[in-house]
Amino acid sequence: MRLSTRSLLPATALAATSALLTGCFAGAESATGDQGDGERVRLAMMQPPRSGLSPLTDDAFKLSRWSTAETLVKLDADGNAVPALATKWRQSGRTWTFEIRDGVTFHDGTKLDAQAVVRSLTRAAGAAPKPRILDGVEVTTKAVDADTVTVTTAAEDPLVPQRLSSPQLSILAAKAYRGKSVNPLDAGTGPFELTKVNGTSSASLDRYDGYWGGKAKAPGIDVRFVPDGTARAAALRSGEADIVEAVPVSQAALLDEDLITEVPMPRTNTLYLNTGKGAFKDASLRAAAREAIDAKSIVEGVYEGRADVAQGLLGPALPWAAELRTPVQRAKAGKADGETVTIGTFTDRAELPEVAATLQQQLQKAGFKVKLDIREYANIEADMLAGAFDAFILSRATVLDSGDPAAYLYSDFASDGSFNIPQLADTKVDAAVTKAGETRTGETRRKAIIAAEAAVLGTDAAVPMLHERVIQGDAAGVVGAAHDPRERELVTADTYVK
Questions:
Q1: Minimal CB count within 10 Å: which of 70, 279, 329, 448?
Q2: Which residues form a coiled coil (predicted)?
């Protein structure tokens, strides 16, 4: 086991955090009374539901990770669309036609058909706010016959199948839509049926024996929401949980290495430099900041080696990026000469304030005078987007909901991008990110995405430092838990506890 540079957790703290979980999973049994097919999977999750598990919000990813709600399309490891509730599809201009899988029933026993798909996708398209994956996209869904639907967009969109893979576009039974909010209880099509939700504390799922893809190996799942990372790690050590998501870096070294898995995430820790005003309006000073950053020391010191030094904006979770990337031409570095800059970041991700402190030292060594402004994300986002800082440190998901980086590159670096922290206005970047978004999926699109990445990196508006890993804990008896860099899968039909 690796030794941690941090102090070990006192025994009293271990006892206290373990006590938080003691009894949480005790006495859990399937509502169906099914026994004899192994143990129920006890799952400790990081974030409690924010919107009553509505699939139109980020809570959709919980439904996906529990294998209770499903979409028309899934993504393979390379981000390509593959069949799920739809078996095949074809494009004709602005319209895509999808064939619906036969023999699928919802957990309430009703049948999946074209009208059910239209109902779910129409509700999502008309939601306020819309699911992120439909931001700026007009979608109309119609039933052609009982087994066929068409999805039409206002402009031709090569990414429609990938968009439909988003957990926020899950297909649910009619009963889910009877109220103002969407209720996923007993309404999905997955191998596990959501049977009970206790607010923000717990949830229960039972195996759905009528699942179209075959009977799940575990009789059910018992979920507890444990926001405290120390308590989640303690639950794995004490045997109170079988699977623990998002083990903090500070706790990983205290666990048996055989129980943890590090998965490269499509998430990059990046220093955004304000190109619109202040010191970093000068390209040579942006270059000086880039050259001053020692990402390796941040990975080793702050992340204890549990991250990957960035070579670009897109990391090892997208292996094709490294294969296509070529050297980027950048401006020559100037001299800081005591220029004062303010770096902002937030406390919600525990490592970011430490990253900020390390960067402060590195930039000061290069001749900058550096001030830090660190707050909770909710209290700093508006200033960040308004360009109030000379630089901002952000841990940013680079594939968003479609599994495709083009939308991220546009939102973060196009002149009219909705998340343009560096206030970048560069015609070459605009052209490159627009082309990437319009190119058909496959190798040609990937090359266009890498060209767009190169255009961004050439401006030094963003300095990618490291790619994060998600650390997942699986008890010794767990078999078949998913280790998904997109965090869409966790417990699947093949997961069980010996």
A1: 329
A2: none
Beta-ladder partners of 111: 105
Q: 211: closest CA among 192, 224, 225?
A: 192
What is the CATH architecture of 73-177? Answer: Alpha-Beta Complex (3.90)
Q: Identify the pLDDT of residue 165.
A: 95
Query: What string of DSSP letters covers 333-402?
Result: P---TT-EEEEEEESSSTTHHHHHHHHHHHHHHTT-EEEEEEE-HHHHHHHHHTT-SSEEEEEEESSTTT
Distance CA 46, CA 472 (A): 11
Question: What's the CA gap between 99 and 481, in Å, rounded?
Answer: 30
Residue 94: both structure tokens together: 């602005």
Amino acid at 236: L
| Per-domain boundaries in the chain | 11-53+190-242+475-497, 73-177, 265-469
Q: Consecutive 10-residue runs of the chain (498 residues): their mean pLDDT?
A: 32 42 48 58 92 90 97 89 97 97 98 98 91 84 98 92 94 94 96 96 97 96 93 94 91 91 92 98 98 97 94 93 95 96 91 96 98 93 96 90 84 91 98 91 93 98 95 95 91 96
> How many helices and strands, by DSSP H and E, does the chain display?
14, 19
DSSP characters over 165-229: TSGGG----GGGGSSSS---TT---SSEEEEEEETTTEEEEEE-TT-TT---SSSEEEEEE---H
pLDDT at 37: 63
140: tokens are 């109309």
Cβ(115)–Cβ(106) under 8 Å?
no
Question: Which superfamily is assigned to 11-53+190-242+475-497 in CATH?
Answer: Periplasmic binding protein-like II (3.40.190.10)
Residue 268, strand partner residues? 396, 467
Would you state the CATH architecture of domain 265-469?
A: Roll (3.10)
Query: Phi and psi (nearest 5°) for 443?
Result: -60, -40
pLDDT, position 400: 65
Helix (H/G/I), strand (E/B), else coil: 100: strand
Separation between Cα atoms, residue 436 and residue 253, nearest integer Å: 41
DSSP 287-347: HHHHHH--HHHHHHHTSTT-EEE-SSSS-TTSHHHHHH------PPP---TT-EEEEEEES
